[in-house]
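Researcher: Here's the sequence for the chain we discussed earlier.
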Amino acid sequence: MISRITGKVLEKGLNYLILDLGGLSYEVFIPACVMQGIDKSASCDGKISLLTYHYHQVDQAKSIPVLIGFLNQVEKDFFEIFITVSGIGPRAALKALNKPISLIAKAIDEGDLVFLKSLPGIGEQRAREVVAKLQNKVGKFGLMQDRSLQEKTVAKDIAEEALDVLLQLEYKRSEALGMIKKVLEISSPVNSTEELLNLVYKQKRLK
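Model: Thanks. This is the structure I predict for it:
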């Protein structure tokens, strides 16, 4: 049983990585909710360490070993509890988990069938089964600080601070919002208010 794998990223697809372990390469499937943090978790030389869920997929009398990777134990724990729902196997869970885990957990706890049905491969009946099986069991996952949500919050805070500065400099609100939006469209991500304002200044000089 392979429980962890560390290697250099040779190839990155929409839902998989090819890792080189010193001449031996492995394909590791990655849920979308995990893939968002892959780049930041890799070292400067391209190496990354993943916890893995290892199983054998039976297909036409063949048993194919499959690895699904996670950046931490909490992500793996959520995956493992998610596949306890009847009719949701590892492949289905890999496809379904395309939104932040905290939001999925919140939807389960609140019985939000509309949100759950928005997950790929989860229809009305399956959404009801997820709620029936997991409601009141996923509270800790709702506390996760998901990467994509953190990044959006940071970007929003930076944009709001930059807007306040531009308004103090007597730009019209509509003009300031337009300049900020234009910069973020071509320069995202921006890591600080100062960086954003410098980019706004440079963009304005190019006009």
